[in-house]
Write a structure and sequence with these properties.
The protein contains ten helices and eleven strands. It is of the alpha/beta class and about 325 residues long. The chain has a domain of about 70 residues. Strands 5-6-7-3-8-9-11-10 form an eight-stranded mixed sheet, sandwiched between helices. A three-stranded antiparallel sheet has the order 2-1-4, with helices on one face. Strand 1 and strand 2 form a beta hairpin. The protein is globular, with a radius of gyration of 21 Å. The chain binds adenosine-5'-triphosphate and magnesium ion (MG). Adenosine-5'-triphosphate binds next to helix 1. Magnesium ion binds next to helix 1.
């Protein structure tokens, strides 16, 4: 069976930042490739500052000032790469999307394409029900401050869906909320994506939720893709960073091993070490890791890893 064509394909993205007055740009994101498929969710995971939001912003042409896509390609069907239409973003903070002075319903209607505005009342009700509201008319009449954090987030999701996007980017959509509300929103996203043929890019720190809701996974470290593939790779990760992230996950089982953090921290922009960016923190590092950058190597079923020690053998090495 061949997989359906991706709705977006990003290849070898390299994003650089030039600080005001700085002579040379510094790399922010390097060597990052992924596909987004209709009806599938890709989780982009990694510690704070590793380049998740910048990567997502590049898709919609929304890079912060001073940053640019220096090389690589982002291919998508016509119209898909328009932020707010083909591509919709949901952010962590509802305040970034919802305007406090207008009623929620009006804001959602304004996000609809012209064809939907002709029957906007019906479409508005349908969208609010779709994101889990049982009383859509009351929610539509409310101002944002009259809704709880979780409700604001769902209203924001309705606003994102109002533009009938092909791709939904959810950047840390749940960290400001309590865990039950988080879980509910993530399940809602997973349902929407499966029933609506939407491609979802979920950005999160939390590997725990990823296994539950996502189909595919891309783990980044210091601006680089370290491991990617179907989420099932979490049962046999290859990259020492991913192994470390999994060991740092809280578990409820009474016989669970004690939690271990990963010693050290993510290097700041412009302070990334030569070679593999993870080598100063890596329990498996060898001398060569400090000099040569490991590029992603391909294994079975779309699994890739960028690690000198755990690289997949190249096809020429594995054929006898
Ligand atoms: N507007 C900006 N100007 C300059 N540097 C920035 C800007 N936004 C992000 N950066 C830097 O780019 C790098 C990648 O940042 P990014 O926001 O993509 O990280 P992230 O993985 O989304 O982290 P978090 O999990 O904290 O949201 C970081 O080193 C960050 O400091
Ligand atoms: Mg971010």
């Amino acid at each position: 069976m061949t997989a359906p064509a991706p709705v977006l394909s990003a290849r070898d993205l390299r994003i650089v930042y030039r600080a005001p007055g700085a002579a040379a740009p510094v790399p922010v994101v390097e060597d990052v490739s992924f596909d987004l498929h209709p009806g599938r969710m890709l989780a982009l995971v990694g510690e704070s500052g590793c380049g998740k939001s910048v990567t997502a912003a590049a898709l919609g042409g929304l890079l912060p000032r001073g940053m640019e896509l220096a090389s690589g390609r982002i291919d998508a069907a016509p119209g898909v790469l328009r932020a707010g239409r083909g591509l919709a973003y949901v952010f962590q903070d509802p305040g970034e999307c919802l305007d406090p002075v207008f009623r929620v319903g009006r804001q959602i209607v304004e996000a609809m394409p012209p064809a939907d505005r002709r029957h906007s009342a019906d479409r508005l009700r349908a969208l609010l029900v779709q994101v889990g509201f049982h009383d859509p008319d009351r929610v539509a009449r409310s101002y944002p401050h009259q809704l709880s954090g979780g409700m604001q987030q769902r209203a924001m999701l309705a606003m994102a869906l109002a533009g009938r996007p092909r791709i939904l980017v959810a950047d840390e959509p749940t960290t400001a909320l309590d865990v039950t509300v988080q879980a509910r929103l993530l399940r809602l996203l997973a349902d929407l994506q499966r029933s609506g043929n939407l491609a979802v890019l979920l950005i999160t720190h939390n590997l725990g939720v990823v296994a539950e809701v996502a189909d595919d996974l891309l783990v980044m470290y210091a601006g680089r893709a370290v491991e990617s593939g179907p989420v099932s790779l979490l049962s046999s990760p290859r990259h020492p960073y991913v192994e470390g992230l999994l060991r740092a996950l809280p578990r409820l089982a009474p016989d669970a091993p004690p939690l271990e953090g990963i010693p050290g921290q993510v290097p700041a922009l412009g302070r990334r070490p030569a070679g593999c960016p993870f080598h100063p923190r890596c329990p498996l590092a060898r001398p060569g890791c400090a000099t040569a950058v490991p590029h992603p190597t391909r294994g079975p079923a779309g699994h890739t890893v960028a690690c000198h020690v755990r690289a997949f053998p190249s096809p020429s090495e594995s054929t006898p």
